[in-house]
Write a structure and sequence with these properties.
The chain has 3 helices and no strands. With 127 residues, the protein is mainly alpha-helical. The longest helix is centred in the last third of the chain and has 53 residues. It is elongated.
Length: 127
Amino acid sequence: MASKCAAITRGGAPCKGLVRLGNDYCPAHDPTRHEARRRAASKAGKSKPGRELADIKDRLFTLVEDVVKGDVDKGDAAVASQLYNVLLRAISMNLKVKELEELEAKLEEMEKALERHGEESAYDFAG
């Protein structure tokens, strides 16, 4: 049966996270995972798709207004909107690649944990 994490949260309450077999801490508090958590936080801090999307949305809105006012040629606006669409697809693909990389890393961690658990189980039966 899984036990609860031994860590205390910033609010002073005991952590409710579940721990892996042979560990006292959940993945969020495990000292051996500190570097992995730091890297993940760094990636998240650098990833600003929301800002990029908002910028493109603002530019498209301005483009529409300029076309309606007659300040921008419809042909030029059509090409610009196609290019914005390419940017949007690139952002989307970038997000998908990041998601896949994160899932791959999690899967690798789970596989290693299963291997360790299998080795511990084999040791328990041998002992």
